[in-house]
Structures are given as C-alpha cells and as structure tokens.
Design goal:
By secondary structure, the chain is α/β, with parallel strands linked by helices. It has a single domain, classed as 3-Layer(aba) Sandwich (Rossmann fold). Helix content is about 50%, strand content about 10%. The protein is built from 11 helices and 6 strands. It has a 6-stranded mixed sheet with strand order 1-3-2-4-5-6, with helices on both faces. Strand 5 (about 165-170), helix 7 (about 185-205) and strand 6 form a beta-alpha-beta unit. The longest helix is centred in the first third of the chain and has 28 residues, at about 10-35. The N and C termini lie far apart (about 80 Å).
Length: about 270
C-alpha cells in the first residue's frame, strides 16, 4: 500500500507565489528592455543601396532581408552598414560590381519577411540574398515553430526564383548587457534554440546558414564597447564589419554556385 506524500498548503502557496513572481519579474524586465533598446538610434537605418565597384561591371544583385541588423541600424555611416560591408567585400573578391538592395526593416520579425519580398519590383530577381532575422521574435516571444515556418517560406520562394540564400541565424541575445538577469540568461537560451531551428530548416531548403551566435557572439562578449552601437543592442560599424566577415565565406560559396549554374566564371 503506497502512501501519497502531500506538501503542506503553506509550502505549495509559496511555490506558486514564487513562480508568479518570476513571471512578473521577467515581464517587467522585458518591457523595460524594449523601451530602452534602439531609442537613441531612432527607427531608420542609413541608406546604403547603390552599385559598388562599378568599374568591374556586370553587377551581382545582392538582396538583404530581415530586421535592424540586416538594415544596418547602429552603423555610424552608410558605408558601415552590413549591406555596404558585404557589397564591397563581395565585389573585391569576385571582381564583379555589386548592386545592393536592402528590403530589411527595423523591428521586423520573421512574419514580416514575406512583405519585404513582396515590396520588391515584380521583375526583380536577386542573384544572392542574405537574411538576418530572429532577435525580435525572441524579444516578442514568438513561438519558434512559427518564426521558423515564416523564414522557411521566404527562403523557399527565393530558392524557387533561382536566388542563392545565406541566412545569418539569430544572434546570441545573452551578449546584451543592457538586459538584466535573469532575463538575459533566458534570452540566451531562447535565441540559441531559435538559431538552431533556423539552421536546420534553411539547410533543408538548399540555403546556407551562418551561426552568428557562435562566430560573432564571442567578439560582442569580449569587446562590447567596440562592437555595440550607442544603444548597446545593435552593432556598431565595427560590429557590422565583423558580422560581414563571418557571412562572406558562405556568400562566396553561394556566388560560386550561381556562376556554375549560369555557366559564368567567378572571375568574369
């Protein structure tokens, strides 16, 4: 005969109270962080779209989709945005000019990627696309499965158009010293969980994935004064330079796939 052990009512109430208190603490911390994040920078990133290294000719069309990181919010000058760094480096390595188009929107979640794609001219098709998204999904507590489904749908559409895609997965939000504990630890877990799910989904669609949390995150942790912009949330110009370096190898691989499929030489 088994005997069921029951917790005293007072102990059970304390446990319930602690759980409710923890949720309220996290909710309050999240609200405080959202009110502070990005405010010193405004809502608009620098406009960096143009043709880079025109002297090379025969431009590669490079498209950026996603959130404020893809848009370049926090960069000191247009030349310091993620798109500008990628376009210059891609042009130099391929000896082809690069025509940059940025459809990324500050504050975007994965559910907004489709609208970014639809905002492009009907006759526009990119050779290469870089997608960076996920941070806002974490801070707004979007379900991982929903965020990944939205990302996958856009990657699938791009791939069907013949565009090679590189996805920078959700950054490690645990690097944000602006966010207090215990919310920061929770943000780290959730951002890494989303990043891994993003990676698995896009690889299955023939895209390439770069784990920004792994290859860029350590620099933001060890050199926050240099890597972060004024708001301590978005990258600075130096942070975008580091992020571009991390994305470039996959972008060059994608360019190689594009030239092979079109019968062009990568040094054309």
């Amino acid at each position: 005969m088994s005997v069921r052990t029951r917790l005293p009512l007072s102990v059970a109430l304390v446990g319930i109270g602690a759980a409710v208190g923890a949720r309220e603490l996290l909710r309050a911390q999240a609200g405080h962080a959202r009110r502070r994040i990005g405010k010193p920078l405004g809502e608009d990133a620098h406009q960096a779209d143009r043709v880079y290294k025109k002297k090379y000719g025969d431009p590669i069309d490079l498209l950026l989709l996603g959130d404020s990181i893809a848009a370049g919010l926090g960069a000191e000058h247009p030349r310091d945005t993620l798109g500008a760094h990628l376009a210059r480096r891609l042009a130099k390595r391929t000896e082809r000019s690069v025509r940059l188009r940025t459809a990324a929107v500050v504050g975007a979640e994965s559910s907004m990627l489709a609208a970014q794609l639809e905002s492009l001219p009907a006759d526009y098709t990119a050779d290469l696309a870089v997608v960076v998204v996920g941070g806002n999904d974490v801070t707004h507590r979007v379900k991982v499965v929903d965020a990944v489904d939205d990302l996958a749908a856009v990657v699938r559409d791009l791939r069907e158009e013949g565009t090679e895609v590189v996805v920078g997965t959700c950054p490690d939000l645990g690097a944000l010293v602006l966010v207090p504990q215990p919310l920061r630890s929770l943000a780290r877990l959730e951002s890494r969980r989303l990043a891994e799910a993003q990676r698995a989904a896009v690889l299955g669609l023939g895209a390439r994935a770069v784990s920004l949390g792994d290859v860029v995150g350590p620099f933001f942790l060890s050199r926050p004064d240099e890597m972060f912009a004024l708001d301590r949330f978005h990258p600075s110009g130096a942070g975008y330079k580091r992020t571009a370096k991390a994305l470039l190898p996959s972008l060059l691989e994608a360019f190689g796939a594009t030239t092979q499929s079109s019968g062009l030489s990568s040094s054309a």
